[in-house]
């Protein structure tokens, strides 16, 4: 041991923690994150579109869209299905939408089946089709219990006489 050296103690070896698997869709909740992709209003795309991060589409898309955070501007026109973590819609969609978070602004027009865990609709938005919005996890019931649930009317707690 030298005059200026420190005595080293034995450190236990630790293994790095295993990385958790990444989710299929990244939910981008911060509106201030930069937009990574832009489709100009003069552009038309025919075919499948997929992206990561945040994208804004101002043009026309004829095909399905898969991505993380999608903003459709007032000039956007989509004919196809959308599967995203977050959708902010100001434009028109003719197709089905599956997204964890959907915001339909007053200028939006959506025709199709909309499935979302968190749905916000501004006054003036046009929604035509089916809406499946739920923040609760649904459980499947099968067998004889399902028939009992479907056929048994609710019992009134205080029936009026």
From TrEMBL:
Listed InterPro entries: BacA/B (IPR007607)
Q: Name one Pfam family in it.
A: Bactofilin
- Give start-end positions of Basic and acidic residues composition bias: 1-14
Report residue spans for region: Disordered. 1-26, 133-161
What family is this protein classified in?
Belongs to the bactofilin family.
* Name of the protein in its database record: Polymer-forming protein
Report the source organism: Candidatus Electronema aureum
């Amino acid at each position: 041991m030298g005059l200026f050296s420190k005595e080293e103690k034995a450190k236990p070896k630790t293994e790095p923690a295993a990385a958790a698997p990444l989710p299929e869709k990244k939910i981008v909740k911060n509106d201030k994150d930069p937009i990574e992709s832009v489709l100009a209003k003069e552009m038309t795309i025919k075919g499948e579109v997929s992206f990561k991060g945040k994208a804004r589409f101002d043009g026309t898309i004829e095909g399905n869209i898969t991505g993380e955070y999608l903003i459709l501007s007032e000039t956007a026109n989509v004919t196809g299905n959308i599967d995203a973590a977050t959708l902010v819609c100001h434009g028109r969609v003719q197709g089905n939408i599956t997204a964890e978070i959907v915001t339909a602004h007053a200028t939006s027009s959506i025709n199709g089946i909309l499935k979302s865990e968190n749905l916000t609709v501004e006054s003036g938005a046009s929604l035509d089709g089916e809406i499946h919005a739920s923040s609760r996890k649904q459980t499947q019931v099968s067998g004889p219990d399902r028939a009992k649930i479907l056929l048994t009317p609710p019992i009134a707690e205080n029936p009026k006489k």
